[in-house]
Each structure stands twice: as structure tokens, then as C-alpha cells.
Amino acid sequence: MNKQVSIIGTGLIGGSLAKALRKSGFAGTIVGADQNESALIRAVELGVIDRYSNDLSEAVAGADIIVLSVPVRQTGAVLAELLPGLPTDSVITDVGSSKAHVVSAARQALGEHMDRFVPGHPIAGREKSGVAAAETELFRDHRVILTPLETTRQDAVDRVSQMWNSVGAQVSCLSVQQHDLVLAATSHLPHVLAYATVDTLAGTDYVEEIFEFAAGGFRDFSRIASSDPVMWRDVCLTNKSAILDVLDHFEARLGDIRKAIETDDSKVLTETFSKSKKIRDNFLR
Amino acid sequence: MNKQVSIIGTGLIGGSLAKALRKSGFAGTIVGADQNESALIRAVELGVIDRYSNDLSEAVAGADIIVLSVPVRQTGAVLAELLPGLPTDSVITDVGSSKAHVVSAARQALGEHMDRFVPGHPIAGREKSGVAAAETELFRDHRVILTPLETTRQDAVDRVSQMWNSVGAQVSCLSVQQHDLVLAATSHLPHVLAYATVDTLAGTDYVEEIFEFAAGGFRDFSRIASSDPVMWRDVCLTNKSAILDVLDHFEARLGDIRKAIETDDSKVLTETFSKSKKIRDNFLR
Q1: pLDDT exceeds 90 at position B132
Q2: Which CATH superfamily does the domain covering A4-174 fall into?
Q3: Low-confidence ranges of chain A (pLDDT < 70)
């Protein structure tokens, strides 16, 4: 039975987890820590967390589970800072989108405590950021991918799984490499494309008309371009090789479509669009 | 006062217009025509249209307004086929997404009657196709762009505008060229990118995991890849130069992001993502 969960980084994901835990009936203490003190004050006011500390070793003291919910490139520094206060019996997990980087940073920072670190990633988000956007039901019926290493303690994996289950999420395990390739394709690539598309539109003629006449299709397509820039910069820099690999594939496929448009190749366009439609329709079922 | 509207092509857009007209209190007759007779029978059963004809000249006989709602490359053939039945006092409009092509095809097919043809484009759609997906409220609070030529009769523009206003749409006018550039950027480019992305994912490793773990971001981003392949093939082939032009810009911007990832250029990534987020957030307001 967990008596205290400490959440480092009380933005959209950390804040939503706090709210969801409370809603699920979690009766213990939720401690928050964040670089942004006004966000912490807000989180206490909103009842999202019970208390906060600016000192990470103090924030984790007494915790059964410590959840890192910070941009991934801060993982090493945050772990090093909380280490002096790390309770003997605690487990640590995170929510980052590039697991190879997180595992490497955690291994370096945690040393002998690495067997209690359970790399994790809830497949949930919003284009809004910060604790004010936090939602109680953000994780319900969503996947959480854990990527435990061979050396990760099973009881630590079980405790983290139980926490995510308690807020309605479905936990699955993948290898670190599988996770990073799958996420590069389904999440990191679309984010890069959405940012690039909005950037393109901003640089074309008729900018005013473009945004005036953009329809629902564009709104949905570009939604993820409203995501947190710092988080996504970090994802790009830390899952670099998988992202560049899937970008290679994408550029080749886009090149094929472009060539078909240039050469009026009706057959290739019909086949490609029909195949994509069929695949996506199946995905939705 | 219109007594009859003839809708050639009773799919998603044509079917939705019929339903919306009926809902708006239009008391006249709605006649449908479509290559797919079972869709027409369905449309009559659903009460979407009053009657149908397989013969286009018969379908337009008695019509005050004729609305073409077919894939754009069929514009010329459809107009040629309905021409023998064209009532003297009727006006013709269409809903196609590439106006230069439609105008050229219409000019060739209609000859002296071209002054009654009002090129139009409702900025509304769904990823679903066919009359079964038709929605009464599809056009409410949506834009309809008309691109009248210098030679287009003003009373024809007024009648088409009035029809769209009656179903809750807001009518604006653009030049043919402006329309085609604006739509290439806001609609045609995103469709091509969504089709290419789904095609990319289908060709990568871990396909099963990819679709199993894809989140809401991907669902929204790729929604338009479920659109009608024939319609989008036609759009690509008929708005070719504007689409290739915006693809050039897109590939350059994507190349900049790619280079920043390759060279760990944190600054460029932060700036690009922040700029895009800001632009899109403003667009939503």
C-alpha cells in the first residue's frame, strides 16, 4: 500500500497523474516538485497535490513511488538531485518518450539503485501544457508502456503497473528499442511533420487567407503542433536515430507520391491512397 | 424562389447538401443523379432526395440550381452529358477542390452557358464517404468559397450564395488562383502528408505494435488519410502546380528540422517548434 507518491514535474502529465490518483481513491500524500513555483502553488490551490518542495531530496523523502515527469533531457540532473533523499524502499519511474536516453541517464545517475528504476511512458497527452490543463481521466483506457531491463526488480515493475492500473490505464511491456522505434513512427514523426507544416504555411503567400479558410481537417492534422516545444525538442534530440530512420522512410514515400503527381500517374496515386485509407480504417476498428 | 435543385453526385457532400436543404425548409424537389444506382435508391429510402434519374439531361430538367458534386476530373464529362437538358433559366455550381481545372473543363463543356456557372467549394468534409455518411449540419458555420470569373453573371452568384446561406454556411469570394494556392497549403498538402505517413508506418518494422500503441495524436493527425482516394487522386492531378509548389516549401522546412536533429541544434528546434505552436494557437482563437 503506497502512502506517498512524489511527482517531479507537475505539468500536464504529472498534474493529471496526481488528479487521477486522488480520484481513484488514493488516500496517501501526493508531493509535487517543479522548477516553476507558481505552478506548484497553483497545484496546491487546485487540490492537485498536498504539498510541494523546491528541494528534490526533500520532495522524495518518505515516497513509496517517485514519478519523473520532466522533459527527458532533464532526467539525469533531476535524479542526481533527488538521490540524497531517496528512501530505501522506494521505486522510481518516469513518463518520457525516448527510453534509451532515459535509461542511459538513469543508469549513470542512480548506479546501484538502477534496479528500482522502471522506465515508463503513458501514451496519452494533450496539445495543452501545464498543470491547468491536467485532467483526471487523461490515462483512462490509454496504454502505458513500461520498458523494464533484465536487471529491473519485478516487484518494482509490479508497483508501477499497479499505480497505472489504479488510474484506469492498461500496462504493456516492450523492449527499450521496440518502444523507441514504435514511438518514433507513431508519435515523433507526426509531431515533426505537424510542426513543419505549420511552419510552411506561415511562410507562404496568402497567410491570412490560409488560416482564415483552413478547415477541420487542418485543425486536427495540426493539433499536435500546439504541443510543448521544449518537450518535443528534447524528444527529437534524444530519440534521434530512430526519428531520422523513420524520416528516411517517410521522405522516400513522400517522394514516390510527389513523382506520381509530377508524372500524372493516376494508378500509383489511387493505389497509395487506397492502401493508406484501408490501413487507417482498420486501425480505427 | 427555387423549385428544384438537382444534385449530380449524391455522396458525402451532395447528400449532405440535400439533407441540409430539406432541414432548412426548402419546399421544392431535390433530384439526384449518381453513377452508383444503389446509392441513389438508398438516398431516396433515407429521404435525402425526392427522386433520381440515371440520365443526366433528365436529372437537370426543370432545375433552378444544378450542383455538381463529383470527383473534379469528371466535371467536363458530366457537364457535357447534362447539357442537352439544361433549362434556360438554371444556374450551375460545383463543390470541387481545384478551381482552375474545374473552370477550364466547364468553359470547354458549357461554351455560351459559361456565364451561369459559379465555381464553388464548401470547406467542409469528413473522412467518411458516401450518402450514408451525409450530415444535415455539415455546412453550418463552415465557409463556402466561390470563385466567380469576370464573365460570371451576378444573379447566378447571388442564387448560389443564397442556397449556401440557407444551410448555414458563410460565403466568401476568392480568385481562382488564390483559392487553389490556399487550398493546396491548408488541405491538399496535409492530405498528401497524412497518406504518406500511414504508408510509411505500414512499411516499417513492428507494424503490429505501431498500430496497437498509436495514440490520439496519431488518430487525429491521420484522420484525413481515411478520405476518399479517388477524390484525392483527382485533387492531386488537377491542382498539381500549386501542390508541388507548397511541397517544395514543406520539404525545405522539413529539411531544416532534419538538419537540426542531425546536428543537435537545440536552438533551431526550440525556435521552430515555438513559432509553429504560437501560430497554430493563434489560428485556433
Answers
A1: no
A2: NAD(P)-binding Rossmann-like Domain (3.40.50.720)
A3: 1, 285
Superfamily for domain range A178-284: 6-phosphogluconate dehydrogenase C-terminal like domain (1.10.3660.10)
Q: Which cell goes with A271?
A: 493505389
Residue A280 to residue B185, Cβ atoms within 8 A: no
Q: How far lies A39's CA from each of A49, A60, A134, A282, B38, in Å?
A: 11, 18, 12, 41, 59
| B177–chain A Cβ distance below 8 A for any pair | no
Dump pLDDT digits (tens) for B209-241: 888 888 777 888 888 999 999 999 999 999 999
CB atoms within 10 A of CB B235: 27
Whether A257 has its CB under 8 Å from any CB of chain B: the answer is yes
pLDDT digits (tens, 9 = 90+) for A127-178: 787 888 889 999 999 999 999 999 999 999 999 999 999 999 999 999 999 9
CB proximity A246 to B under 8 Å? yes
**Beta bridge partner(s), residue A65:** A5, A91
Query: Which chain B residues in 204-233 lie under 8 Å from chain A, judged by CB atoms?
Result: 204-206, 209-230, 232-233
Query: What are the structural domain ranges in chain B?
Result: 4-174, 178-284
Instruction: Answer for the pair B195, B243: CB distance below 8 angstroms, yes or no.
Output: no
Q: Tens of pLDDT along B58-84? A: 999 999 999 999 999 999 999 999 999
CB pair distance less than 8 Å for A220 and B217: no
Question: What pLDDT score does B133 carry?
Answer: 84
CB < 8 Å to B74, chain A: none
* C-alpha cell read off for A141: 483506457
Is pLDDT of B174 > 90? yes
Residues 6+ apart with CB under 8 A from A111: none
Note whether A253 contacts B203, CB cutoff 8 Å.
Answer: yes
Nearest to B217 among A182, A187, A251 (CB): A187
The predicted pLDDT at position B209 comes to: 84
A199 and B275 within 8 Å at the Cβ level: the answer is: yes
Q: Are B72 and B101 in contact (CB under 8 A)?
A: yes
The Cα of B198 is separated from the nearest Cα of chain A by a number of Å equal to: 6
Q: Is the pLDDT of residue B188 over 80?
A: yes
Angstroms from B208 CA to nearest CA on chain A: 10
Please give the residue of chain B at the shortest CA–CA distance from A240: B261
